[in-house]
Amino acid sequence: MRSSFRWARPAVAALVLAAVVWRLGTGPILAGVRALDGRALEAAAAVFFVSTVCCAWRWRTVAVGLGVRLSMRAAVAAYYRALFLNVTLPGGVAGDVHRGVSHGRDVHDVGRAVRAVVWERAAGQVVQVLLTVAVLFALPSPVRSSMPLVAAALTATAVTVLLVARLRPDRKRRRWERVRNAIVADIRSGLLHRNAAAAVVLGSTVAVVGYAVIFLIAARAAGVTASVPTLLPLALLAILAMVLPSIGGWGPREGVTAWVFSAAGLGADRGAATAVAYGVMVLAASLPGGLVLLVGSLLRRHAANPPIGMSSETEHVSGGNDHVIPLSSHPR
């Protein structure tokens, strides 16, 4: 059952992408790739670097709050590696799993390190959703009229979760209370200690703005001339769609972008081309993470199979029996 669900998620993403290609043809896909040039890729890589550093800062802040040591340099390298894996492997979360487990093994506390990644990503998603909702309320977009309903649905969902938790049977309630206490302790330690909340909010905000800027660069490269206030809500919707099950980010992003561009009167084909250009830009900008992955693999292989070489010189001294006297023995 679990295996079927795991395969169903990328299958749905593939169907969405196939539907976009079937509806619009391959023209927008190829146009999105051909629209890119060196300047656009360089600009995207620079903005991507800033966003990645902010995300790494957020992760380090949460990890330190939970009592897990993590240097900023190691956090940036690991975050690049995680993003590279996220955009090249199905599901979009393999890199984060690898990041948490690898860090946990380094500090000999996998559980706490994985929790740091979970809380760091969750906090980033919350900030992203709140920013998206705020922008969609403030700026005109195809979904602006639906935003009161969305806000009401989010509020109702939160209230329902709280009520269900309180109405559990006594045994399950006690178990839930233990889980809740652990969650509250993690939030206090990881997200609310000292200036952690401000760092998490600031880092997440800059990261989301950076991804939106990359989307705007992709839109301009794809020939979209609409104003920034018009494109910004569409960009945030497209980026938010990437939290859905995907194939390395591909699938829902293209479908949502084509839909919102069409609803905004900008053309579904331009939307698909922009989404493809954005995906290629992010993939190119994350390539340093592939280098980090390669170097790390080579170092681990070298550590597991060190060069073996021993030099020993012996001198035999005869006297009734032969004795072997080592004069020197050291690894080379």
Sum up the structure in keywords.
mainly alpha; 13 helices; 332 residues; disordered C terminus; 2 strands; two-stranded antiparallel ribbon
Secondary structure elements and their pairing?
Elements: H1 2-24, H2 27-34, H3 38-65, H4 72-88, H5 94-107, H6 110-138, H7 147-166, H8 170-191, H9 196-221, H10 228-240, H11 252-263, H12 268-285, H13 287-304, E1 310-318, E2 322-331
Antiparallel strand pairs: 1-2
Please provide a brief summary of the model.
This protein is 75% helix and 6% strand. The protein is built from 13 helices and two strands.
> Which strand order does the major sheet show?
1-2
- Broad structural category: mainly alpha
Helix content: over 70%
Q: What is the N-to-C order of secondary-structure elements (H for helix, E for strand)?
A: HHHHHHHHHHHHHEE
Number of helices: 13
The total of beta strands comes to 2
Percentage of β-strand residues:
5-15%
What distance separates the N and C termini?
54 Å
Q: Give the uncertain stretches in residue-range form.
A: 310-332
How would a crystallographer describe the biggest sheet? 2 strands, antiparallel
Outline the structure in words.
The protein has 332 residues and is mainly alpha-helical. The protein has one domain. The chain is 75% helix and 6% strand. It has helices spanning 2-24, 27-34, 38-65, 72-88, 94-107, 110-138, 147-166, 170-191, 196-221, 228-240, 252-263, 268-285, 287-304, and strands spanning 310-318, 322-331. It has a two-stranded antiparallel ribbon.
